[in-house]
Amino acid sequence: MKFGILVNEGPYNHQASDTAYQFCKAAIEKGHEIFRVFFYYDGVNNATRLGEPPSDDRNVTKNWAKLAEDHKVDLVVCVAAGLRRGIVEGNLAPGFRISGLGQLIEAGIQTDRLVTFGD
Amino acid sequence: MSTLHTVNKSPFERNNLEACLGHAQPGDAILLIEDGVIAALAGGSLEGKMADAAKTFKLFALGPDLAARGLDPARIVAGIKVVDYGGFVDLTAENKAINAWL
Amino acid sequence: MDEMESGIVKKFMFVNRKPPHGTVYALEVLEMVLISAAFDQDVHLAFLDDGVLQIKKGQTPAGIGVKNFSPTYRALEGYDIEKLYVEAESLAERGLTEDDLLVPVEVISRADMGKLMAEMDVVMTA
User: Fold this and answer.
1) ipTM value for the complex
2) What is the mean pLDDT of chain B?
């Protein structure tokens, strides 16, 4: 089955991004496809490459980047929400790309299920 | 085909669960995740409400979220089934749409 | 764009349960709704719980230093987004009536809102 994922919240403040990541990992292990993960609202903050969490904690941004690298998951950051919060090409972590909200609507149309994780 | 509802907030903090229960259709699946798992605890003020809900809906709680909070799966309301992330994925596949009560 | 001509028409619902101004969700949902209009989908907007405040008449956020985006709800019709549903119980709980709303809507019961939600293919909530 083909999944679209919407992440509404940034890393660390909320569990939303962690839950979305665990969901994606489990879905891939079961043979499903993650068509796209779309980061919106404060969710765009997951894509900053400037975060440096303590070494004994998980690195949410790197978790996503590794998932993208290992399984060709399309990680899309909303351009408008990103601009509002200072997430731009210059500080974007590897594995993420910036595009428009149309990518989210397209994910809703093209996938079998769209799952939202938020506050 | 039925809907999967997710509830991620404690019923002691917000009305997400209440809103979900007020709109879900009989036979729908409701999965408690993150702080939402607090609603699953047996012996508290919500036990009667959750036991009633279990008669109308299929209730689930995410095991890793119970464990993270030190909550014993053996001490949750009867009728609530514990699933892992794989079970969460299965629930999304088995239902037509996912309604996240944020 | 190809995706706009996919030929697939799904029932989308944007569920609004949060009031405006205290958080950014109402504004950014609205931006999402406007983009969805380009995809020729069957778009529904639901306002329930504190979400009914999003379309309250007379919003004047100048004093809090925030942009007043509420007139945009009136522009949705121009984008062929005309299926706006408001939950009657949510209005009543807050002492509001349909006359307090700045845009034409269909007021439906909580029970009917639940049934309407059950018909959707994609539900987006913030």
Assistant:
1) 0.97
2) 98
